[in-house]
Amino acid sequence: MALMGIQLVVSLLAASIMQKMAPHCSFARWLLCNGSLFRFKHPSEGELCALAGKQMPKQNRRDRRQNGENKPLTVPKDIDLHLEKAPVNVIDALVLRFFLEYQWLIDFAVYAAGVFMFTECYYSVVDASKEVNIGAIWCVLTVLFGLKTLHTLMSHYFRSEEGGERSVCLAFGFLSLLVAMLVLVVREDYLEFGLESGFSNLFDNLEVFARQQGYADWSIPVTKLTVKLGLAAVCAYIGALLAFPGLRLAQTHLDAIQMNSERPLIQILLHMSFLSPIVVLILWVKPIARDFLANAPLGKTSVTLVSSATFDSMRLWIIVSLCVLRLALVRYHLQAYLNLAQKWVEQMKKEAGRIAAIDIQRKVTRVFCYLTVVTLQYLVPVLLILFSTLALKALGDFSWCMGAEETPGVTPALVMPTAAPVMPGGVDEDEEGIEDMEEDIQATVAHLSETFTALRSVLTPLFFRGFFAFLTWWVAACQVISSLFGVYFHQYLMQN
């Protein structure tokens, strides 16, 4: 039996198409350059001089520097300046900061979603329980690449000369560490991640595996307290990564609400999108979610509205639907960010004094230069929640069909392939070479099968359920903390 079968072929085909089609057809490039987003062009010195009511100096800026004139061209702040709008095109997007990282990650996520949907259809038609789920591997890789991208953005903040961004990341990291330590001591009766049973199952399987390998006296030298401390450190790191995405989400949300003040339906959707991480948090609070539906109080008795397996499927569908909603509203948030250039100009007009023309040009240009950074800060947290949920479904043996009873346990062992028997009789050198090659291939497949068998016997669906449920919940919790603080900061602290 093939180790991965048709899934491996589809996975390799998807990787090849992604590599070949990226320069010609890119979803990430289309998202920014489909003509729906408009940027603001910075005014030239001639336009600023005309608005200020004076003539443009005959010498340009470079000539003034060469002649020793370092005085910048200044104009009054209250000039009647209106920025010119232009649609974002491919040429403009190619020079944006972190554009290549943005394009690669978003395109990889799109192809990962395609591979996952194929594997789900494949598993619904064919009994492939003995094959490795390639779609789950793509989902896990998307989560890892998303964290790596956020790490790259945070490294950019740490290299900042001002140092304020570094302090914000560290502060949210320590706050996340404190919150994670509090969450990890909450009993499973309140937060039903399944971490306790998952890690207990992992340790038991590791000891059994060690005994099978001949290490009879070997035991796990790690206690549950050590594991929780390590997990809390990882949570603090994720909290630091999601600090600025949450703050940016709060700013773009408030601006998008103001931008669509005359469109109540869009405002409702924007509020639903902003509050969606809170819904994700509630879905794992057992007394509010599962107990309310499974044992709904009705007088002195309780009524079961949905079964436990149905609730698990409902939770997956709700999270995926909320992620799709947030992805569908990305254009409103990005346009709200681009409008900051005009918003800054309107604020400048209310001030007195003069300002250098180069400062106006820099302020307007800087907004557009960080467009891909803001796009990543909006999309990556959504992708983390979405693909960790998809990995939870695939690796945790859940079902999309409501009512299907699933019992997580140890995945059945793979059938070890056996070498084909050698037929008696004389063979020439070419046939011997072919047979040697076939034996090498069979030995390699057998070795890989044995490796995956051991891995699947240690990392069971019970462990994956606890791990990815907690990861999904924690990413949503970090977004709630940082975005709510961002709303408070932009609504009250900035105004004061």
List the helices and strands and how they pair.
Elements lengths: L5 H16 L5 H7 L4 E4 L3 H8 L8 H6 L7 E3 L7 E4 L2 H5 L4 H27 L8 H25 L5 H21 L10 H18 L11 H18 L1 H17 L4 H20 L6 H5 L1 E3 L2 E3 L4 H21 L1 H9 L1 H10 L4 E3 H13 L1 H25 L33 H30 L2 H33 L3
Antiparallel strand pairs: 1-3, 2-6, 4-5
Helix pairs in contact: 1-6, 6-7, 6-18, 7-18, 8-10, 9-20, 11-12, 11-15, 11-18, 11-20, 12-14, 12-20, 14-18, 15-18, 16-17, 18-20
Overview of the structural elements:
By secondary structure, the protein is mostly helical. A hairpin with a 2-residue loop joins strand 4 (296-298) and strand 5. Helices cover 67% and strands 4% of the residues. The chain has one domain (6-59, 71-408, 460-493). The protein contains 20 helices and six strands. The longest helix is centred in the C-terminal third of the chain and has 33 residues, at 461-493. It starts with 5 loop residues before the first helix and ends with a helix. The protein is globular and about 85 Å long. The protein has helices spanning 6-21, 27-33, 45-52, 61-66, 90-94, 99-125, 134-158, 164-184, 195-212, 224-241, 243-259, 264-283, 290-294, 308-328, 330-338, 340-349, 357-369, 371-395, 429-458, 461-493, and strands at residues 38-41, 74-76, 84-87, 296-298, 301-303, 354-356. It has a two-stranded antiparallel ribbon with strand order 1-3. Strands 2-6 form a two-stranded antiparallel ribbon. Strands 4-5 form a two-stranded antiparallel ribbon. The chain crosses the membrane at residues 135-155, 167-186, 225-244, 265-285, 367-392, 467-489. This is Transmembrane protein 161A. It is a multi-pass membrane protein. Keywords: Glycoprotein, Membrane, Signal, Transmembrane, Transmembrane helix. Residues 1-28 form the signal peptide.
